[in-house]
Amino acid sequence: MNILITGVHGFVGSNLVSSLKGNHTIYGLDIVAPEKEGVVKTYSWDDLDQGNVPEIDAIIHLAGKAHDTKNQTEAEVYFKVNTGLTQKIYDYFLASPAKKFIFFSTAKAAADKVDGILTEDVVPTPKGPYGESKIAAEKYIQEHPAASDKQVYILRPCMIHGPGNKGNLNLLYKVVSKGLPWPLGAFDNRRTFTSIENLCFVIDGLLAKDVPTGIYNMGDDEPLSTNELIEIICESLGKKAHIWHLSKGFMTFTAKVCGKLHLPLNEERLRKLTESYVSSNAKIKKALGVEQMPVAARDGLKNTLDFFKNKR
User: Fold this and answer.
1) 131: which residues sit within 8 A by CB, 6+ positions away?
2) What mean pLDDT comes out for the span 267-275?
3) Where are the domains of the chain?
4) To 5 degrees, how large is the angle CA 56–CA 40–CA 160?
5) How many CB atoms lie within 10 A of CB 22?
């Protein structure tokens, strides 16, 4: 199968190339178009406009503006990239002979906060330009249905991690690896993670199987608390976990002050590190005909942490 991956040089794109290159012919689409191992050729968005991209069987759309936890990105940038580029590549798909389109949205497009367990039938209530720009892209896709011989998938993954990850998990690892105590033990939360191994498994299944068009949550089977995550990090480092249960009020005030001083712990990061956000992956497992994801949540995290440790 000839597959076009947008944002191919990013964290998820790089891992997907490694996973798919043995069984498929991979082409890339990115802002810049340097050579990449496993990719026959990477094209620019201008090449797409000019019709220079070869005939494709499936498109995986990853390109987008990630959530800025420092809140320094203008809202229009999110909509220009997350919504505008999605409309552009989806219109290309509709006019092309390609049969499958996989769009990487985000769980935050469905809900900024979750009480209970997030499922695909929730009425979307995104908050902020990141989630709002993603749900706008989803709506465009839904309002322009593809021909009956095409299949379109909107994925809403929770926090994705794996080799090359540079997000909050990497920041958390760096803090814990310095031997600093974890001061947020008073926050009792549960959240869903998404290992890159399970994500690649799902993408492979969507490409290979006759899965119905639709919206699918993406995540590991077992949610974990941040305190459990700290213990897993310490275990990987061969250290004893030092978890402090400082009052929530004090830590919230501290994060507010740190944010004004442009320090790593701000209110947004505090929320992301301590909120409960559990997402159900039952629908995608049923569609793929599996009872569980191939990699357990703890094992996936250990694989990512091993990558962090080897990069030190």
Assistant:
1) 106, 108, 109, 112
2) 84
3) 2-166+191-224+278-297
4) 80
5) 7
Query: Does residue 129 contact residue 79 with C-beta atoms inside 8 Å?
Result: yes
Residue 273: in which H helix or E strand, if any?
A: helix 267-274
For 171-183, how does the pLDDT look when each residue is reduced to its tens digit (9 = 90+)? 888 888 888 888 8
Residue 46, helix vs strand vs coil:
helix
Tens digit of pLDDT for each residue in 172-212? Answer: 888 888 888 888 999 989 999 999 999 999 999 999 999 99
> Tens digits of per-residue pLDDT, 28-67?
999 877 789 999 999 999 999 999 999 999 999 999 988 6
Q: What is the dihedral of CA 248, 252, 255, 256, to 10 degrees?
A: -170
User: How, if at all, do strands 25-29 and 58-61 pair?
Assistant: unpaired
Is domain 2-166+191-224+278-297 given the CATH code 3.40.50.720 in the classification? Answer: yes
CA distances from 67 to 40, 86, 147, 159 (A): 30, 16, 32, 11
Rounded Cα–Cα distance for residues 159 and 224 (Å): 12
Of 287, 30, 91, 62, which is closest to residue 196 (Cα–Cα)?
Answer: 62
